[in-house]
Structure formats: C-alpha cells, structure tokens
Amino acid sequence: MITLFTTPKDFTGIFKVIQTNALNSWRVISHDIQIIIMGNSDGSKDAAKLINAEHIQDIKCSPEGTPLLSDLFDIAQKRARYNILAYVNADIILPPNLLREIDHLDNKFNKFLMVGHRWDMDVDQFIDFKTEVKRKIFWSSIKENSKKHACTGIDYFIFKKGMYPKLPEFVVGRWGWDNWLIWKARRHM
Predict the structure, then answer these.
(1) Contact at 8 Å (CB) between 167 and 99?
(2) pLDDT band at 189, cuts 50/70/90?
(3) What pTM value is reported for the model?
(4) In CA terms, which of 59, 106, 165, 186 is 20 to 30 Å from 136?
C-alpha cells in the first residue's frame, strides 16, 4: 500500500472543483491507502474529512505563508503507515491502475523514484468517481480531450520511506525543487 500526501490551495472557485476531483480520484483507488492533506488552506480540513484522509494543519511556511516542502516530506515520512510514499500536487487526478504500477516497481527494485507529469484537460464540473460508469466515461474522454504537458512540469513523486531524510527549505510552487529531488535520488541509488 501507499501513503499519499499533498498541500492544497484554498478550496474556492475552480480550485474547489479541481482539487475535489483530484482527491476523490485518489480515494477510489483504494479505501486502504493513507492520504495526508497538509496546511491551513480554506476547506482543506473539510476535504480531508470527506475522503477519510488525515489533516495536518500546522506546517512550516515561508515568510509569505507558502508551505515548505521540507516540512511536508518530514511530516509525511514520520506519519506514513506504509513504506511507499507519494507527494502529489493537489490538482492531479490519479489513474485507477496506479497501485499496480507501483507494486511492479516495488517488486523489481529495492530503491526507486517514480515521477510523472500530467495530461492537461479543462474540467470545470465535479466528477462522480464513486460510480463506475461515470469513471469510465471520464477516463475515455481523456483520450480525446487532453494534451500531454511538457516534461518540465513534474506533478508526482513516488518513493520509499527514508529516501529523503533532509530536504532543503524549498517553497512549494517555486522552481527547481522537483529537479533537485530527481538529482538527489539518482545520487543515492
């Protein structure tokens, strides 16, 4: 199994739709996965409750109030019930086959870092991921209505607990930290 963790923006306007869809897609992957939502953004506590996730409000932030990645990773690795963790941007809808792909890597490698970037698609309505028919309609629409994002935007990092014992104080949403995580993993594998 896996521990997913994230820090969302405020659940207002279109971000409420986008992030709610993403989090709901995570929960339907399995009711047994651990999901940790961090930060004090408006609506994050309620969103966590709706999908049976943990909510951790108090996290370290930059002077401007933006979460520090170092604290997110530290908290997640300490609280994780599972040996595999995933930092996922809160607006990313995860595919239903995610656990199968992770199991494949876990069975093949002692250490790994799985990263990926998104397929962009405008979604401005709530998706009912709990209903199989509606899930299938959504996933089939991806083929026609989405566009692969450039590889420069990495949206998830899946790794084994302990891979990142100490991160620099990177600020979420700023450039460079994603490439640093890849560099660090390559240096220690």
Answers:
(1) no
(2) low
(3) 0.92
(4) 106
pLDDT digit string, tens, across residues 115-155? 987 777 888 899 998 888 988 888 888 878 887 777 777 88
- Let me know: does 32 contact 62? Beta carbons within 8 Å: no
Can you read off the two tokens belonging to residue 35? Answer: 């999901």
104-121 residue pLDDT tens: 999 998 889 999 877 778
For residues 39 and 57, what is the distance between their CA atoms, to the nearest angstrom? 5
23 contact partners, CB below 8 Å, separation of at least 6: 8, 35, 37, 47, 50, 51, 53, 90
CA–CA gap between residue 163 and residue 12 (Å, rounded): 34
Q: Are 3 and 78 in contact (CB under 8 A)?
A: no
CB 91 within 8 A of CB 11: no
Question: 2: which strand partners?
Answer: 84
Compute φ and ψ for 22, nearest 5 degrees.
-60, -50
User: Residue 188 to residues 34, 41, 67, 110, 165: CA-CA distances in angstroms?
Assistant: 26, 34, 26, 12, 12
Q: Are 117 and 147 in contact (CB under 8 A)?
A: no
